[in-house]
Amino acid sequence: MTSSPDKPVRPWRLATRLIRGVTGVVIGCLAIVALMTAGFTKYEITERLDDSLQEVGERLQFAVLALNQQGPGHDVAHLSDIKPTSLAYQITDTAGHVLLRSSNAPAVRFSVPLSSGFYMLPQFRVYVTPAAQVDRFILVGEPRLHRTQATNKAILIAVLPIIGSVPCIWLLVIWIVRRGLRPLVRLQDEIRERGSGNLKPVPELALPVELSTIQVAVNSLLERLQKALSAERAFAANAAHELRNPIAALLAQAQMLRSTALRKPSGAANANPESDAAQDTANTRQRLDALISQIHRLSRTVEKLLQLSRAVAGTALRRDRFDLLPVLHVVADELDRPDHACPRILIETGNLTQLEVLGDLDAAGILFRNLLENALRHSPQGSAVQVHVTASSALPACCVADTSAAADQAQAYEHSACVTIQNTCPPLGPDLLNRLTDPFVRGNPSTEGSGLGLAIARTIARQMAIRMDLFSPIPGQDDGFMVQLTFQKAPPRA
């Protein structure tokens, strides 16, 4: 029976299921054994007590002889140390008159037939046997209280060790199951460490035959994955090298052709500006400008595709510690020179002079380049792109859409650093905002771009375990676009 695809499968632990299953089966078997033991013990105790009644009845034959010698009038035998659980007896005649009885026996004959056998009364278990004299009968009664107490004690003595062994069995099952699953736990820990840039084969762990097959399969898969990633990275690097050179050469030739076209028509233009040669030269210049523009666009698209290929190939899976601030400043200086009169990228770091995070330095540079390029491309001319960098034990207000949730999220951000990138633009719809990180999806189709910047950023963020959130409009404003990045801070140095 397969589970419904819409119903989530609850996680379960193999050790817990084994412990519960084995313990349940063992306890069930012990319960059956305890019930059988209790029934057998009750049967044996009843049989032994009945034998005792019969033996007492046979030994009372001498009392009949003594009764004949003493005559009537001695119908009660007073014995010392009589208890409620002591045996009681009566000697009667055929008419049912009690001739002799023990002090704890009723004065009236037990209401049982005067024929050999065992009879059960509300308070006594009675055994009847004829005496050696024909007209005499011996009735021996055992109080049912004594029989019940004896039976219960015997059953308790027989069953108590079985019940007492249940906790011991439970602890032994836990110990055996955990010890048996210890190789599986080691294999689980080794497999959990794989990924995030660690594709080393699983070492020898002295696993049983059932698990050694899994180890071999995992190592084979890791080896194939390592080869595939290496081949993809090599392809991306070689493709970047091979494509940049012809595109650069094509661009250089187009620029040289344009400069040549600009020099040729100068004399003809002065002689006759309305001539066909001047018109052809203007058309040629226009076409060359379009060609150069398309070559630039092709170069940027190829660069983005290669970046996306590198990101998908796992270039950001490394977990090194590096300083985030120099990477951010270098990328910002490349995109917006600091000597400009009106810089378009404003970075606010507060009192931070160093902020070490975990990840890959080169991948972080690609991430910031794509996000800053996207912000510059989609913001109006003259507007600035604002970058805020914070690192504290609590979530900064600029990084939360709903400031009332800051207290609830502070614990999750205790070891994190927050970077936000904001730019001015018309607000985006929720549907478009959700699809904005898909390849070739652009927020404004009329704006020049390939639609790959946010897709590359999202891929790198996932590989570096960076939380990336998109907001439009900016929280607290009516327009704008904001990207929030939450990095994992590096642990303090020893």
TrEMBL record:
It is found in: Membrane. GO terms for cellular component: plasma membrane. The keyword Oxidoreductase does not apply. Residues 238-491 form the Histidine kinase domain. One of its GO terms (molecular function) is phosphorelay sensor kinase activity. The chain crosses the membrane at residues 18-40, 154-177. This is histidine kinase. It comes from Acetobacter cerevisiae.
